[in-house]
Design goal:
By secondary structure, this protein is of the alpha+beta class. Helix content is 28%, strand content 25%. The chain contains 6 helices and 10 strands; from the N terminus they run H-H-H-H-H-H-E-E-E-E-E-E-E-E-E-E.
């Protein structure tokens, strides 16, 4: 439980820093993201855990990937992992699976774990979508990006701009123009897939 509280606090600090950096009020960020002012305030104070959909809206408002919003230092202060110092693993740029951070959606149990570091020019993220769960991201979350989705285990249904495609293990899809996307697992087993994102602009002026 303490880890969840710490993660919420760090995310709240990062969100507040990003908003202040752009000189946006809570109302302005609410208008940009479609997330209520009250919810943004609770997330910034670390008293509420945002859902995956809310993260998608917030990251889209800042012109960032979800990984950038979650995985970089809370104030963009260079606290990200730096290869070349510390343990032999650190010097070699190795991140062990057992110590890799992950984020879990409090509503659905959807879990995302970064595979690439914050410094790597492409986001690579492993996602586990529980049986019966679905997560929807708004078109704004894809406005600056190129996405490739590769299914490793299970069956994934993607609803892209109102059209549904079913992906089985080994299948991949590259998303086109920005559109609302729903990731759905209608099966009785968890689905695991990898998302590769080529980053666009890091933020708006």
């Amino acid at each position: 439980m303490s880890q969840i509280v710490d993660d919420d606090r760090l995310l709240g600090e990062r969100l507040q820093h990003l908003r202040t950096e752009r000189r946006w009020s809570l109302t302005e960020l609410a208008e940009e993201s479609g997330v209520s002012r009250a919810m943004i305030n609770r997330v910034e104070r670390g008293v509420s855990s945002p859902t995956a959909t809310i993260l998608g809206r917030l990251s889209g408002a800042f012109g960032m990937t979800i990984s950038q919003l979650l995985d970089e230092g809370p104030a963009g202060d260079g606290t990200e992992h730096q290869a070349g110092s510390g343990s032999p693993d650190d010097r070699a740029g190795v991140q062990r699976g057992a110590t890799a951070d992950h984020w879990t959606d409090p509503d659905t149990g959807y879990r995302r774990r970064p595979v690439s570091s914050a410094e790597f020019p492409v986001d690579v993220t492993e996602v586990v979508l529980p049986a019966g769960a679905h997560v929807t991201y708004p078109a704004s979350a894809y406005a600056f990006l190129r996405h490739c989705i590769w299914v490793v285990e299970g069956t994934l249904e993607l609803v892209v701009g109102g059209e549904t495609v079913v992906l089985e293990p080994g299948d991949r899809i590259e998303l086109g123009d920005p559109a609302e996307v729903t990731y759905r697992n209608a099966s009785a087993d968890a689905c695991r897939y990898v998302v590769v994102v080529a980053r666009g602009a890091r933020g708006r002026e």
